[in-house]
Design goal:
The complex is a heterodimer.
Chain A lengths: L6 E12 L2 E12 L3 E5 L6 H8 L7 E9 L2 E2 L5 H7 L4 E4 L3 H4 L6 H13 L3 H14 L5 H4 L9 H13 L5 E5 L7 H18 L2 E6 L2 H7 L2 E6 L2 E7 H6 L4 H8 L49 E2 L5 E2 L11 H12 L1
Parallel strand pairs in A: 3-8, 3-9, 6-7, 7-8
Antiparallel strand pairs in A: 1-2, 1-4, 4-5, 9-10, 10-12, 11-12
Helix pairs in contact in A: 4-5, 4-7, 5-7
Chain B lengths: L1 H28 L3 H6 L5 H11 L5 H13 L13 H36 L4 H15 L2 H15 L15 H27 L2 H8 L4 H26 L6 H6 L5 H11 L2 H29 L1 H8 L1
Helix pairs in contact in B: 1-13, 5-6, 5-8, 5-13, 6-8, 7-8, 8-10, 9-10, 10-13, 12-13, 13-14
The chains are: A alpha/beta, B mainly alpha.
Chain lengths: 337, 308
């Protein structure tokens, strides 16, 4: 068996355009069995679109090209039935806003049983028993009594637990968690992260964790992909990226996080905003905001290449290893003036 | 729940009372029944005698108090023209009106809602644009124009359907169609926009992400949510089952409540007009109440709000 087929999911050159405007410019990404991969980047960089496209969940006006293989089976361009079997059964997905992701007029028990009957053929009492077991597993207290309640009778954190229970119902090989904690407050965030980590350990399912919270990503994942303006700009192990971010964008993301340990210093924002996909800058999309950009960066787009240490990097002038923060601060303050 | 219904019922009674009062005052301010009933060249003594016998010589507030009192005893007055019980006269006409409005309501429901839902699910398609165009035409063309147009085409030019009267069920076809077209358009528009709104909600994406087949997503997850705004409109339509036929009944000489209302207003037949308005107000109010109760049944969030 060749190396490629050991991956659970392989994205190759995945491109997405809405009404002719390209928002995803060819994503190559592997997810191994049982692996936890993080996808980070600012809002609008294509993290969610990548996986919505992979599951065929984008609206009809989106055009999706490239390849998405699950255990070697091609999904893109396939019939609806193929996607319907994959969704929930092989790859489950949970979303950012748990309270509005559950159907408000259906009892939560019914929504979970629905997934059980779809993917495991359970009905009636066995389905109810299994749903209660799942609710118990995700930490919904007093599940038996609350089985027939509606989503609005649960808190946001509990709704996310319900979403996770529903995702587990199909015993998927991969769980896509699309910013699962963004809408929740800090203590609840930590609980949901712990739950995701614990469930992965118990079930062995792979996880794709989409987030702009680098701290959360480091807790959940082994490998991280950093995305910017519809492309992967850096990819490597959590240890590599966290100890030595090489892409200036990755570096910028770290500098923008407040730290509770070490000496106090000012947070360094990344100047500017994510470019509009209609008017992407020439060359490297990040060059207008980049503190290391040179003339070549504005005309030439760097390809994603494997570096000596095994990480993937798309940058003409990567951050040198162990560059001190202070130097960066000065450069950025110059840029902002 | 009981408290909820009780409050609504009380409000309903206030509404009906306001309608009755308004009708009572306006009818008496806007013309003299004695003049209309007896004609212009009648001696003053006859007019005075008429007024005395119907109590019209009393001050307005005395008449009003007497009227309200009689309503509470179930007496809706006597028609000045037919000298018969106003309530009986009105109730005799109800079946004729329902013969038109009930089939029309059915047509609105079975054509309007599916057309709107289909258009929403095939947005920007040829069918969607077609539905929008027909819907706008349907509810912008006034029913008297539509009625005359249909008479022209089917009765005058083609000669396949009668242009008026109530002899057989065939006579009901044109008025029923005339009455339903606007409602079909309105329901199609509302169902379409309700459905488009719901289909964009995150829980619909969740239902798809779960692996549900497309028809199940639409039937089990989208339609129950889209039902709330649709039910609102249908409620209005049910409320106007009695009142909605005034124009169409006149065009097609259909002896229903609408025609009785027009004739009675012309004659200043006070008791009959007041009785019709009372019944119209009551049906409106009752259907509104039913809609409110349906909301709670359709959307559990509203149910718990009402309970608090």
């Amino acid at each position: 068996m060749d190396r490629a087929s050991s991956n659970l999911v392989e994205l190759r050159g995945l491109k997405v355009a809405f009404d002719g405007v390209r928002v995803l410019h060819g994503i190559d990404l592997n997810v191994g069995r049982g692996e936890a991969v993080g996808l980070v980047g600012e809002s609008g960089c294509g993290k969610s679109v990548t996986w919505l496209a992979a599951l065929g969940l984008l609206p009809g006006k989106a055009s999706v090209t490239g390849s998405v293989r699950l255990d070697g089976q091609e999904l893109v361009g396939g019939p609806r039935e193929v996607y319907e079997q994959v969704r929930g059964g092989r790859i489950a997905m949970i979303f950012q806003d748990p309270s509005s992701s559950l159907n408000p007029v259906l009892r939560i028990g019914r929504q979970i049983v629905e997934a059980l009957s779809l993917h495991r053929g359970l009905r009636g009492d066995p389905a109810r028993r299994e749903a209660l077991r799942l609710l118990d597993m995700v930490g919904i207290p007093d599940a038996r009594r609350r089985f027939d309640l509606y989503p609005h009778e649960f808190s946001g954190g509990q709704c996310q637990r319900l979403m996770i229970a529903m995702a587990l119902a199909g015993e998927p090989d991969l769980l896509i968690a699309d910013e699962p904690t963004t809408a929740l407050d800090a203590t609840i965030q930590a609980q949901i992260l712990d739950l995701l980590i614990q469930l992965r350990a118990e079930t062995g399912m792979a996880t794709v964790f989409i987030s702009h919270d680098l701290g959360a990503v480091s807790q959940v994942c082994e490998r991280v992909c950093v995305m910017y303006a519809g492309r992967i700009v850096e990819e490597g192990s959590v240890a590599q990226l966290f100890s030595e971010p090489r892409h200036p964008y990755t570096r910028g993301l770290f500098d923008a996080i407040p730290r509770i340990d070490g000496p106090r210093h000012r947070l360094i924002p990344i100047p500017g905003t994510v470019p509009n996909p209609r008017h992407l800058p020439e060359g490297c999309s990040f060059s207008p905001r980049c503190f290391r950009a040179v003339e070549a960066c504005r005309s030439e787009r760097p390809a994603l290449e494997t570096s000596a240490d095994g990480r993937q990097l798309a940058c003409l002038r990567p951050v040198p290893a162990n560059e001190p923060v202070e130097r960066r601060t000065r450069v950025i303050e110059d840029m902002l003036q | 729940m009981i408290r909820f219904v009780a409050v609504r019922l009380l409000r309903a009674l206030v509404t009906i009372f306001a309608v009755v009062t308004f009708a009572f005052v306006v009818l008496r301010m806007s013309g003299d029944p004695a003049q209309v009933m007896l004609g212009p060249d009648v001696p003053q003594e006859a007019v005075d005698a008429f007024r005395r016998s119907w109590g019209l010589d009393q001050p307005l507030w005395v008449q009003y108090l007497a009227y309200v009192k009689s309503i509470f005893t179930g007496d809706f007055g006597v028609s000045m023209r037919d000298k018969a019980s106003a309530l009986d006269l009105v109730l005799q006409r109800v079946p004729a009106t329902l013969q038109l409005t009930l089939p029309a309501l059915l047509l609105k429901l079975v054509l309007g809602i599916p057309a709107g839902v289909y258009a929403a699910l095939h947005r920007q398609s040829f069918a969607d644009r077609g539905v929008i165009l027909l819907a706008v035409l349907g509810f912008t063309i006034p029913s008297f124009v539509m009625g005359l147009l249909l008479v022209l085409i089917f009765a005058v030019i083609l000669g396949v359907l009668p242009s008026g009267g109530q002899d057989t069920w065939v006579h009901g076809i044109l008025p029923t169609i005339t009455m339903s077209i606007g409602g079909i358009g309105i329901l199609a528009r509302f169902s379409r926009s309700a459905m488009i709104e719901v289909m964009g909600q995150p829980y619909i994406r969740t239902a798809s992400a779960k692996g549900l087949k497309w028809p199940d997503v639409v039937w089990n997850h989208a339609l129950p949510n889209a039902a709330v705004p649709i039910v609102t409109i249908v409620g209005f339509m049910v409320g106007s089952l009695i009142a909605g036929a005034v124009v169409v009944e006149s065009i097609f000489s259909w002896p229903g409540i609408g025609r009785l209302l027009i004739v009675s207003v012309g004659n200043r037949d006070l008791a009959v007009v007041q009785c019709i308005l009372l019944i119209i107000a009551a049906t409106m109010v009752v259907s509104n109440l039913v809609v409110d109760l349906l909301y709670g049944w359709l959307d559990p969030r509203l149910r718990s709000n009402a309970a608090h």
